[in-house]
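Ops channel
N.P.: pipeline sanity check, posting one input/output pair.
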């Protein structure tokens, strides 16, 4: 699943998108000497929504859609558009029969699955045989709230009590996780939100001590923290609930991984979302694909009508598991098992930007088991996931399928490395029966996920199957396998032991070494020779090295490109791997897109895509969109427009691209161009996220107040659960001197998105104009939950509380 965010990647799944939906807040005027609440009102909060407030609501969950405006300036022959695609015969939700339909013919496999970690991965509604969290136990105490986890006749619920507010009851509609991980299993819960989404609640439990914790990464950047009475409720990043099940362009999400056949789609008729799923367990069809046709065919005496997974190639077999056990970015929405994973997802695109893994594939911040793709056993051998893991029981086994008693058994490795069994102690330099002599102790150590922090135990096994290198590991910030047992020894001493026992270790691949030292490269040509290696093994490393080259050495429309760099990029553009090929093409497009020769090369590449056209164009545009997002964050509107214009050459008239292109035009002060781009996007998709809001803001900036109001109203009509239209209508009412109407709009926005700090703070302004100090105080408190650094609002709260105190004393 994707967990990309600007400035790092965290387990929460949340992203920081450069494509914010509204311009940054206007600067606040200097505070006036008068310290009354009305003085704060005059000097106070900016009416525009801040970029960070928007990021809370509308981080485009899988790096955001690609972005680009209409090409500007210069005569060029257009690149070939996407070919007209015939409707694909792909499986739909109705083609899935559910796990119980498999039990009649496959009883043994079904029984094994039901007792497995996949079969017990979750329940909807929650079931007593899965839930281990202490519902009915002690309350969860925050500094500003008390949460009661209750087991009721109708099921489970959390009741949140805060001073000055009626209790909030959050029904538990599903449980996710059974605490199965040996490195620290956890359990979380989802509730059905009024907009039709299933959202994760912020209260989770670690199985070992059943202590409640929450994820603070997006608020405090402190990882997972046990809940204590000195924490604020709003310190939890999932309060109010915002992370959803199912891939989303608007909300942070866990994609389709925590359940089976999860589909999240916006229904324009209902003006809300629809969440469909078969189960919160990971069922048979999650791996095998839809069984409806198979069942019907077999019952009719026909053929099997389903391909057995045992016949898959190494690469295809591993991709079955990496559907969920890897970070990935959405290339196209609507994935279901049985469809081509590469058409809908990229496993390599998360390596752009602040990558989650080191050069050798090991986890740097937060990742899953995609390190498998960087292991020698995969790259230079035939290892798949099911060589070690039984796909039905999820227990351990040998490569020949013989069951093993547990994860520490050397049988996992000795099936391929039998010679290591002859003289175990000589190889391991530990007594043969000791824990230090186990293969996985040294080569697959459990390592705490770094972005989780150290307060909640959450370790994963290192699937790169690395060689212990204590000095290298220490330099990377990874605890070496040796330190798991020898925490009292310095890394230098541990490295000395390794050197004495094994001499010169097997060197890391040259491209891994080059990528690890990429920061030391001083010229474009040297970087190209070291990082751009079309013949290297391991496409994930190839992609990561190419991404490092792109981000450091390439700029939009460079006057020239080093000859060797250009040659290597063209050779990489012929890669069989879609991700590497797309990144190389996007790099050429970004750096030399105005050059006629390069443009012809790109056109030829597009014409030759064949069946790869849609997935490769999607990746290519995503890379350019990412570059545009980064340019916008830097304040470089020109570079952003170049990136977005190039993305539109690849995917013409894509609504999300046009919207973000409009944002870049607005950043540059060209609101006429922005308005035209927004209108093009809305003509294609009237429900494109935040299209109407941004159109209204640019119309407002251009002086068209009536048009802006119409756009904001249209936003509230198209999506009944979009708050920003209401916020901006409230802003207009407040400017017009209509605080009662403004308050009504802000109240609607705050009810839709309780975590949108600007809605609460502007609501406080309206209440103050109405003279309602009590409600203004509550709105200020809620706004400061999510905008704690707003000193003007904090001063206003102190003034309001002082005024209310004086009123009470009279």
């Amino acid at each position: 699943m994707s967990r990309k965010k600007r400035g790092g990647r965290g387990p929460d799944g949340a992203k920081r998108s450069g494509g914010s939906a509204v311009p940054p807040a206007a600067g606040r005027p200097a505070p006036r000497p008068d310290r009354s609440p009305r003085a704060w009102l005059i000097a106070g909060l900016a009416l525009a929504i801040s970029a960070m407030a928007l990021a809370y609501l509308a981080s485009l969950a899988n790096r955001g859609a690609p972005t680009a405006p209409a090409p500007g300036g210069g005569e060029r022959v257009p690149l070939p558009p996407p070919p007209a695609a015939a409707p694909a015969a792909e499986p739909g939700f109705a083609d899935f029969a559910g796990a119980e339909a498999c039990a009649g013919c496959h009883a043994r496999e079904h029984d094994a699955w039901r007792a497995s970690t996949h079969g017990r991965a979750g329940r909807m509604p929650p079931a007593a045989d899965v839930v281990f969290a202490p519902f009915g136990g002690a309350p969860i105490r925050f500094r500003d709230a008390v949460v009661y986890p209750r087991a009721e006749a109708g099921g489970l619920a959390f009741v949140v009590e805060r001073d000055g507010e009626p209790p909030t009851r959050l029904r538990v509609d599903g449980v996710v996780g059974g605490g199965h991980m040996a490195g620290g299993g956890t359990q979380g819960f989802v509730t059905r939100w009024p907009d039709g989404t299933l959202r994760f609640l912020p209260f989770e439990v670690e199985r070992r001590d059943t202590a409640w914790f929450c994820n603070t990464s997006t608020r405090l950047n402190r990882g997972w923290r046990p809940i204590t009475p000195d924490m604020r409720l709003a310190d939890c990043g999932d309060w109010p609930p915002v992370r959803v099940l199912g891939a989303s362009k608007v909300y942070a999400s866990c994609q389709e991984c925590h359940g089976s056949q999860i589909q999240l789609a916006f229904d324009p008729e209902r003006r809300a979302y629809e969440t469909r799923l078969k189960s919160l367990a990971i069922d048979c069809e999650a791996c095998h694909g839809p069984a409806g046709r198979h069942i019907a065919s077999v019952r009719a005496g026909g053929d099997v009508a389903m391909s057995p997974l045992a016949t898959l190639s190494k690469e295809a077999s591993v991709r079955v598991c990496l559907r969920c056990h890897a970070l990935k970015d959405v290339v196209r929405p609507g994935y279901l098992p049985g469809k081509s994973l590469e058409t809908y997802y990229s496993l390599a695109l998360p390596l752009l930007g602040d990558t989650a893994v080191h050069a050798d594939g090991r986890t740097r911040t937060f990742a899953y088991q995609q390190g498998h793709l960087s292991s020698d056993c995969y790259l230079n051998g035939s290892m798949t996931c099911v060589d070690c893991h039984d796909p039905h029981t999820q227990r351990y086994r040998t490569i020949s399928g013989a069951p093993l008693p547990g994860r520490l058994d050397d049988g996992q490795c000795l099936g391929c490395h039998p010679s290591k069994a002859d003289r175990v102690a000589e190889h391991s330099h530990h007594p043969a029966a000791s824990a230090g002599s186990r293969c996985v102790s040294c080569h697959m150590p459990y390592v705490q996920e770094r972005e989780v922090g150290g307060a909640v135990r959450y370790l994963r096994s290192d699937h790169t199957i690395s060689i212990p290198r204590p000095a290298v590991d220490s330099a990377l910030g990874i605890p070496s396998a040796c330190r798991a047992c020898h925490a009292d020894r310095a890394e230098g001493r541990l490295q000395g032991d390794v050197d004495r026992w094994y001499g010169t270790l097997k060197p890391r691949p040259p491209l891994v070494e080059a990528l690890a030292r990429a920061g030391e490269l001083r010229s474009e040509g040297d970087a190209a020779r070291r990082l751009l290696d079309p013949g290297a093994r391991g496409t994930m490393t190839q992609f990561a090295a190419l991404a490092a080259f792109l981000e450091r050495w390439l700029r939009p429309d460079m006057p020239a490109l080093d000859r060797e760099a250009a040659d290597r990029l063209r050779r990489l553009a012929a890669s069989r791997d879609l991700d590497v090929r797309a990144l190389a093409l996007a790099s050429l497009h970004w750096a030399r897109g105005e050059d006629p020769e390069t443009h012809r090369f790109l056109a030829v590449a597009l014409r030759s895509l064949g069946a790869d056209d849609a997935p490769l164009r999607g990746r290519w545009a995503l890379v350019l969109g990412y570059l545009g997002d980064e340019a916008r964050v830097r304040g470089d509107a020109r570079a952003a427009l170049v990136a977005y214009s190039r993305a539109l050459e690849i995917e013409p008239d894509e609504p999300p691209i046009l919207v973000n292109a409009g944002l870049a035009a607005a950043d540059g002060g060209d609101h006429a161009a922005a308005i035209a781009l927004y209108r093009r996007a809305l003509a294609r998709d009237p429900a494109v996220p935040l299209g109407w809001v941004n159109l209204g803001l640019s119309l407002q900036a251009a002086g068209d107040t009536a048009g802006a109001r119409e756009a904001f109203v249209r936003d509230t009509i198209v999506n009944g659960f979009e708050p920003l239209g209401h916020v901006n209508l409230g802003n207009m009412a407040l400017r017009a001197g209509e605080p009662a109407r403004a308050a009504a709009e802000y109240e609607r926005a705050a009810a839709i998105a309780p975590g949108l700090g600007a809605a609460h703070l502007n609501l406080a302004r309206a209440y103050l104009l109405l003279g309602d100090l009590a409600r203004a105080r509550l709105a200020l408190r809620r706004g400061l939950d999510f905008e704690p650094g707003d000193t003007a609002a904090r001063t206003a709260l102190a003034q309001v509380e002082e005024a209310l105190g004086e009123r009470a004393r009279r």
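N.P.: looks fine end to end. The chain is about 40% helix and 10% strand.
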